[in-house]
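Human: For the file, kindly provide a plain-text protein record giving the amino acid sequence and the backbone structure tokens, at your earliest convenience.
Assistant:
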Amino acid sequence: MDFGIGFLSNNVMLPFLDFFYGIVPSYGLAIVALTLAVRFALYPLSAGQIRSMRKMKVVQPVMQQRQKEIQERYKDDPAKQQEEMGKLYKEFGNPLAGCLPLVIQMPVLFALFATLRGSPFADVNYPVNLQILPREQMEQVQPQAFATPPQNIYISDKVHEKILALLPGGTRLGVGDEVHVELQTPQGTPFSELNDRYPDVNLAPRWQITQGTERAEIAEDGTLIAKEPGDVTLQATVPGLAANKGFLFIQALGRVGAWDPDGAIRWDIVAMILAFGVSLYVNQLLSGSQQSANPSQGAVNQITPIIFSGMFFFFPLPAGVLMYMLIANIFQTLQTYILSREPLPAEIQKLVDEQATQEEKKDQSAKDKDRSTLPFEPGQRKKA
């Protein structure tokens, strides 16, 4: 039994999605509600991560100095060096501890991401790799049934079933053979029968050969005719129930890419990508990650929003997924802003005050040094 991402998606995310859709029958609002619900549920974990990062940003200079001193002092005694490092981490905290909340919440976020990439928000594909052999070789092949992993398909609003693609005779065909890929539930109920139960919804599968078009041909009902030996990839596509439904300024939740096939710009997609980059940049400013003692790291942090947002132009995602990422990032930015205004712990605030005092002394010392090297001061006469 799957207890991973698929389990969370099917047993946690989809029931919540159906619940929100039942309250407000809009798949766009359902995405918003589901995203916010998950983010509020993970708020304590992400808050702990933000607080830890904020703390480490303050104590990092002191820790690095202390680490260097310990490494120099006990360079010939690894055991003592490790012991002192342990004391240092106990005093200031382990830098890796801030990653733990992120690691814990990642499976939930991946499950949410996977849910929004599939039905009902996007088309679902079933690729099947076939091997066409000469007739004389087929006599030596033992037929063995083949089935793809089941995927969740929305048949109607709040009605979904797990559907798999089945080849009873296996994936090896002889030249001249005909084969039909059967879409059905794991219990054997044909997808066409499920689709017929809801005549108002047309989810008739689309069939195409994505590789080896010269070796086979496909009929409208999905029957493939083998023509020449070689490898062929047949793909069945089940339409997403809400893929063509819009929300606010988004024309279609399942639309993928910032350009139409004819080259026209999809401004709703472009707007979400740009807004994502801006929200990521603001989040970095609030968290202080734009500032770094290492110039190279600081430069990388500054271009990160451009890289991340620009990536969606070349590796496009469905509009519904982009909307989720934008909402989640805005939520994260607001959370960072709220937590950045919290008072620091007393021992950390003491370090901040000490660092500020040291900086003031350095600035004053530099000013005094510059003043002492002036060739003359206003109001004073040069000595002859």
Notes: The chain has a mean pLDDT of 76.
